[in-house]
Amino acid sequence: MSLLKTLHIAHLPEDLQVYLSLYDEVKNAGFLQQQLLQGNSAFEYAFIDASIIISSNHLLAAVFRAANDWLNGRMKSKNVHSEIVFCLSMNNNIAESFRRFGICPATTSLYAIKVSRTPSVNAATVQQHLSNSIEGKPLPFEESAITRFTDVRKVKKTYKLTDLGRSKVGAGRKGGAAKGKAHEDARLANGDNGGEEAERKELEMMVLG
Question: What CA–CA distance (Å, rounded) separates 6 from 135?
Fold first, then answer.
């Protein structure tokens, strides 16, 4: 079973469809990664580790940018699906993008994304293929499920963001990472867990720029 969500993203062609699934308790991430590395065309998806995604907006912004670059011949990677993974990154290193945002054998929760303008690729065919290929528990692509898997510390480290909502010291400033980490550790040590949702929203804004 696959709780597949079909989306049309504004400002993209009407015939361009985006299919998204979220899986937990995945047992064969290593197999899925190997299909990508081997260039198996049947597995042309963006497989993304769920722990690094802060919200649906975070994920869909990368999908929009990748699809737009695909349509306008501006891609830096081999297809629109690898471009989605690349568009989550802050730099131009494609290999690093896959290490940070793609799946690995240890991945247990992931997003599977398919972008298509081909009529033969539709919700039914994508759902069937994912159901047959991913050994895991499908979940609805909803904000409550998405945020459940977010590793906020990992997101902050990856995007070099620290000390949200306070002095806004970032790793882009000299000494920012060390100061931000010290402040965060002190906050957690004092049991300050308030404002978690506000912090998540602020983190999303900073990630999306």
Answer: 21
Give the E-state strand segments of 3-151 in sequence order: 5-7, 17-24, 46-49, 110-116, 137-139
Sign (positive/negative) of CA torsion 26, 94, 92, 8?
negative
160 in Cβ contact with 170 (< 8 Å):
yes
**Which phi-psi region, left, alpha or beta, contains residue 195 (left: φ > 0; alpha: ψ -120 to 50)?**
left
Tokens of residue 121, six digits: 């690729």
User: For 51-60, what is each residue's pLDDT tens digit?
Assistant: 999 999 999 9
- The whole-model pTM stands at 0.84
What the block records as the tokens of 138 is 């499908």
Q: How far is CA 167 from CA 32, 75, 188, 197, in A?
A: 42, 37, 16, 18
- Structure tokens, 10: 């504004």
Strand boundaries in 108-183, DSSP class E: 110-116, 137-139
| Dist. CA 166–CA 202, nearest whole Å | 11
